[in-house]
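lol ok so funny story. i was supposed to be doing the assay writeup but got distracted and ended up predicting the structure for this chain instead. priorities right. anyway since i did it might as well share w the group, maybe its usefull for someone
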Amino acid sequence: MSIEIRVPPLPESVADATVLSWHKKPGDLVSRDETLVDLETDKVVLEVPAPQAGILKEVHYRDGETVQADALLAILDNSSQPATHPAATPATDRSRSAPLSPAVRVLIQEQGIDPRQIEGTGKHGRILKADVERYLQDRTAAQAPPPAEAPGGASTTSTAIPDAPPDAGRTEERAPMTRLRKRVAERLLEAQHNAAILSTFNEVDLQAVADLRQRYREQFEQRHDIRLGYMFFFVKAAVEALSAFPVVNASVDGDEIVYHSYFDIGIAVSSPRGLVVPILRDADQLSFAEIERQIRLFGNKAKEGSLSYQELTGGTFSISNGGVFGSLLSTPILNPPQSAILGMHAIQQRPVVKAGEIVIRPMMYLALSYDHRIIDGREAVQFLVSIKEHLEDPSRLLLAI
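and the output, tada:
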């Protein structure tokens, strides 16, 4: 019997998808639930599995082509079931026991690598993008020729280079933007064109937060099995500040200001496909451990390309941490339709004056970019001061004052 493989229902507001890569070709045996093809949308990669075991009979779209929801992707023939493959040893079946994420599959296909040669460090031996990059580095190093040896046995790296044309080695390569990259570009331009973006800055002394983490880190990690980081404090401080200045948590809809009674905080995360902003829903109701656990989960999913559309939709305010990449100061761009975004930066030991004395403290610059159409400078400055006060005296977060 022939089974039609169709494009699954696409997320709301997503009109179409792009065929990212086929994992099977016509004539291949397919197991039930085995991924046949990856479809790329503006935000996520959708995996289309085989509903039953069989043989892939026809493929109707090639890599790079655009498809609509419910379009016929392929035909699967399940009249003759594929033979059961004998169990393989872990050394030769690593990739089957731990499925590859879309991002890893694309990288492996581009480099022509056999995944069975890569040792996965993820959960249950899953191969991560970092594992592939490490394998490529090791392979390149192993293939590098040894340095030339000069007369007498002395090695030398100096060789005569013949004259070469002026343009030798000056190559160019063109690569199409991914749908995610194009969508990010569109939204950034949209934010700059449709909002009056200003930024205000401040700095915060994180000594109290650092002392609190140092004092309770071990107990916290033992009890909750999660690392106690800095992000929780910033999320909770942002919630308190948003409660005091609700217009910063609002958005513009035509000629109206939409005030939100909830706090859905977007956390900007870097992924192999570009920047994504998964949402912490009802952040005001989450505990320390729940926030840290959710953020770690977002980071892992972003690396694997497995964030769902629902996890990336919505949000009333965002936080971007450029400090993890070494940024000292920057002006983050709004994530439409949100009206403000908080930028965190690198923590540096700097001399500051406290009680008339010069002391060394862990300092961080903060930036708040905001839509001046609805947020006045006074509110933006006071909002950022509120975050500073809650971080410099974190007991205020526990007392909600």
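The two ends are 67 Å apart (CA to CA). Residues 82-97 have pLDDT under 50 and may be disordered.
back to the writeup now i swear
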